[in-house]
User: Fold this.
Amino acid sequence: MTSTTCYVGIGELVSGRGRTGSVNADSVHSIPNAAILVRGDRIEHVGSEAAVRPQCPADTVFVDMQGKTAVPGFVDPHTHLVWGGDRSAEFNRRLHGATYVDIAAAGGGIKSTVAATRDASQEQMAAKARKTLDTMLLHGITTIEAKSGYGLNREAEIKQLNVMDQLSAEHPVEMIQTFMGAHEIPPEYAGRAEAYVDMLNQELLPEVKQRGTVSYVDIFCEKNVFELDLSRKHLQAALDLGFKIRLHADELFPLGGAGLAAELGAISADHLVHATREHMQAMAKSGTIATLLPGTSFFLRAAYADAAAFQEAGCTIALSTDYNPGSSHTISQAVMMALGCMKMGMTFEQAFLAVTLNAAAAIEKADQLGSLEAGKQADILFLDAPSAMYLVYYWGVNHVSDVVKAGRRVVQERRRVAD
Ligand SMILES: [Zn+2]
Assistant:
């Protein structure tokens, strides 16, 4: 029998509205003294407690949330979840003044993560990623996009995807998979980027497609890595096989990745620190979501993307942590909201929508996730805070007290509930 639970005593409920991502954040609204009726894994009713209570069937279990604030589960649409090794010592060298070139020359940087990922067993990497997923869940992240891309050869890329399959089956955090073999040029192909892309296109993409669990192909479209022609070649091969695509674009240099994303109909283009106005407009036309990653700008002491310009161009904006060991080692979407507001000129409502409904749209899940509305999956956070504003106003603090994922309470009073 399907269980019915009604969460009552919600001090304030804040959510966007809609089944698609949205350019303007006008739909973000607040309901005081709210209740949410959940049947099975779905939301059945949302509204004031006075309006929802009469809708509850006789066998409803009532759970009093004692004045907590309810918001939709956070979606993180850009993570590098699975990798081996540890780069904290290298990070400290950076704080002592070492440059990326120094660090790379000493065997550090992404190449050290690639080596550690190749060396690690599937079980070792799963244990590490499982811990990350637990931390994400405690911070209210209920759905993520996760990329391969630290193996850079057949065996290690497939191993990363195997870890994702394994964790998808056992962990409440919902995972959308992306293949990113074109994250960097592996040492075996130094100076031969095109040969590497040809290998990916001919050998790995068809094999990855066969798995049936990978939705997207992503590429690091950047000067001196995969430039526009090679990026186009790889992404076109992915499209031909029936994958959807997303891009790391214009992070370090205005190469034109944002324009390529629009041209090829990418679902999302990410980073975009140096995207031009013309390409922003092209993205708005193609419906490509602008996924901005302020954590990376913060961690690299680099420039931030111009959220206001994307807004003005008519782009739908999502925010993501870019969780990875080198350029953004964090899982907090609340901190991304704070950076979006303080460093990229976003309003609270824009930042809120960017980690909920628009983040869901960046992985094509806005019809199911990203807002608290009847018919959507019951992914709900309860914050131990007087208002949702505290996500940004009282920043750097985890306010998430309880998490409901697909109708199941998986975090209660800041502790994981046993499955
Ligand atoms: Zn990334």
In short: Residues 74-361 form a domain with the TIM Barrel fold (CATH 3.20.20.140). The two ends are 19 Å apart (CA to CA). The longest helix spans residues 193-211. Residues 284 and 314 are 5 Å apart (CA to CA).
